[in-house]
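Budget justification note: compute hours in this period were largely spent on complex prediction jobs such as the one shown. Inputs:
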Amino acid sequence: MKAVVFDLDETLIDRSSAVTRFAERLWESNLSNGELSQIDFVNDVHLKDRHGYTPRDEFFTLMWEAYSKAFTSKSTIEDAFYDQVWETPVLAEGVIEWLSRLRELNIPLGIVSNGSTRAQQAKIKHSRIGDYFSVTIVSEAFGVKKPDPTIYQSAADQLGLSAHECWFVGDHPVNDVWGSKQVGFQTAWVHLNRPWLPDLDPCYDVKGESFSATMDAVLEKERGV
Ligand SMILES: [Mg+2]
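Corresponding output:
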């Protein structure tokens, strides 16, 4: 293992927990006097968010349409979201320990993330993990998204390595595992107890139910080679 490249959301960052916190606080400040329970509101926010795959403007419009009675403006919802999800992100358990350990082993690290430059850079900055990474590629600035092969290949190129010498660690079967496998990465799937896609070959080399469990599996596989 000469380098490790990571996905950001739901791999290094526990985006789902940050969204839950956003929804809980929004309910407490604006909806707690109404009929809707906090748990139902939180679940509805997650449905509308679709793990971040709903475009942001569409997400805020959906929220505003559903809950306009409870808020003075759509920007109230937007501001709360950016505050909770971008500016105070939640790291997955064990991330700092693993990044420190890999740095001690002199293994260079990278991030390849789909999303807006503003959002992803804010999450990296506010979670204070930026210094661990020698390569950071965000799709908006790069010009193409995962699973376009050039985005993974560029990470390997910037690390000065061939893709075969690198691991890619992420939660998305297509965007993280399948895509990076196509250019030759060794792949680790953080499954978070979600199913693999029925029509896709299970092309990961190792998997784990959490970030830490997945990194344990990577290290075990490396030691076995
Ligand atoms: Mg992800």
